[in-house]
Backbone:
């Protein structure tokens, strides 16, 4: 079971502190959101899971964290200045603006008018001034993707790690796109995070690696709790491919608003590495153009067997963190109804993604002995480094259970008067609602087994 509509998820996220509209007290900014106390935990857990699978669990990937501000030449020679556009249409009657491919039957989605302008290209990249003088000559872009900074650091990574093909560079970071019509909550926004891997391979092996990475990425999403029934695989038609792509496979997900892209796995060939090698000869320092062919950095890697220099092909699995959060929230959302008319809302998150791993609940909030015992249990669990453990001293066990079901806490631990007598605690499972009594000595192994 998933959410019936987006409004259910938006309401849950606001009510329970997952996601808020940014600057809401001033009316907000369209297409921009802030992650609240539980949202930031879920988001960080998703990123941590991706990083572990890409970097820690592999021996052929290095990590990177690069700058957001990007030299204009990087995005000029990557093709983004020329091609990173959407078709823009204005309604002459209500003055609203829309992407042309979102217009149906040539009617304005806002007022229904047919009085629309012809589509024209609209560049999606944000510019910002660099330095003290705002004269238009010294500017940078906010990066529209994390990939280009990986490509421009290619030689730095090789020189400092002595990598050989095949190998990858992974990065998680912010990207910015001036969307004409942000929509569908956090699905399409102007500021977002990407989880991207650029995997460099020998030319001729790229198609095999592309297939391998498609399989790996589908498997990873399933391990995050995404069901096969809600996934579709699309081979992007040639006419719709990005300017750099030889072939792209999109992992599509059934979001509340429809089936849309969750992750793309592209075969970028040698487009980016080759382009940045060819176009380095002329570059700019303090408004002066420098021409020096000796300064060119060869973005290539030497084959250790033949000593030939190779410009590698690149396979790029690229996923949006925010879209991943939305898919996982949708996938885990449950409303369970009972025979007596009661119902409960549950986020059946995988334990490694849950914002709160366990809640420790004293039976009596004003009993110092019970509260101190609960604090001891909380400190013990926190020392296991499983994630956030919360002391919930609300004084109402039933309401605490329901609240933690709704935010996805896998286990609730009750400390009561019996705990003081025999050093035991009651553990309640979120999904089954079953309760077991265990000794405090058993607790570390029990939680490590059930929360990892």
Residues:
């Amino acid at each position: 079971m998933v959410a019936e509509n987006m409004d259910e998820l938006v309401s849950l996220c606001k009510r329970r502190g997952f996601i808020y509209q940014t600057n809401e007290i001033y009316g907000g900014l369209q297409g921009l959101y802030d992650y609240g106390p539980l949202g930031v935990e879920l988001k960080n857990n998703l990123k941590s899971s991706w990083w572990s699978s890409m970097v820690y669990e592999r021996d052929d990937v290095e990590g990177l964290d690069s700058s957001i501000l990007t030299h204009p030449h990087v995005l000029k020679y990557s093709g983004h200045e020329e091609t990173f556009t959407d078709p823009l249409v204005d309604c002459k009657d209500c003055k609203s603006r829309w992407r042309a491919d979102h217009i149906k039957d040539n009617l304005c989605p806002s007022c229904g008018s047919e009085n629309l302008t012809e589509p024209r290209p609209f560049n999606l990249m944000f510019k910002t001034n660099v330095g003290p003088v705002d004269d238009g000559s010294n500017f940078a872009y906010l990066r529209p993707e994390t990939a280009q900074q990986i490509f421009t650091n290619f030689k730095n990574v090789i020189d400092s790690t002595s990598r050989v093909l095949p190998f990858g560079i992974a990065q998680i970071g912010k990207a910015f796109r001036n969307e004409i019509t942000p929509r569908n909550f956090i699905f399409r926004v102007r500021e977002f995070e990407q989880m991207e891997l650029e995997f460099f391979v020998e030319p001729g092996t790229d198609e095999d690696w592309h297939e391998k990475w498609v399989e790996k990425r589908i498997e990873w999403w399933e391990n995050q709790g995404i069901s096969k029934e809600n996934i579709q695989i699309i081979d992007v038609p040639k006419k719709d491919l990005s300017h750099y792509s030889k072939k792209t496979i999109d992992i599509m997900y059934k979001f509340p608003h429809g089936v849309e892209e969750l992750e793309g796995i592209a075969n970028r060939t040698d487009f980016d590495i080759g382009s940045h090698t060819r176009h380095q000869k002329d570059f700019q320092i303090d408004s002066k153009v420098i021409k020096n062919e000796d300064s060119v950095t060869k973005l290539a890697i030497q084959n250790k067997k033949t000593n030939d220099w190779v410009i590698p092909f690149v396979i790029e699995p690229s996923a949006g963190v925010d879209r991943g959060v939305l898919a996982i929230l949708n996938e885990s959302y449950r409303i369970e109804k009972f025979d007596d008319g009661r119902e409960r809302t549950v986020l059946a998150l995988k334990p490694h993604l849950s914002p709160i791993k366990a809640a420790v609940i004293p039976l009596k909030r004003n009993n110092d002995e019970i509260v101190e015992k609960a604090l001891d249990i909380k400190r013990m669990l926190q020392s296991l480094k499983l994630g956030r453990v919360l002391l919930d001293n609300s004084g109402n066990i039933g309401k605490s259970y329901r609240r933690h079901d709704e935010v996805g806490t896998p286990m609730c631990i009750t400390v009561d008067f019996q705990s003081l007598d025999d050093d035991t605690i009651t553990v309640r499972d979120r999904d089954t609602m079953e309760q077991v009594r265990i000794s405090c000595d058993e607790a570390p192994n029990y939680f490590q087994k059930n929360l990892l």
Remarks:
- The chain has 13 helices and 26 strands.
- The CA atoms of residues 112 and 193 lie 34 Å apart.
- Residues 282-295 have pLDDT under 50 and may be disordered.
